Amino acid sequence: MTERPPIGTEHCTVERDGHVVIVTMNRPEARNALSSSMLVGLAEAWAYMSETPEVRVGILTGAGGQFCAGADLKAMGQRPADPRVQERMARIPDFHWKGLLRDGRPTKPLICAVEGYAVAGGTELLVGTDLRVVAEGATLGLYEAKRGLFPMGGCAIRLPRQIGYANAMDLLLTARSVSAQEALAMGLVNKVVPDGTALAAARELADQIAACGPLAVQAVLRTYRETEHLAEEEALKISDEIGWPVIGSEDAKEGSRAFKEKRPAVFEGK
Question: Region Disordered: what ranges (predicted)?
Answer without folding.
Answer: 251-270
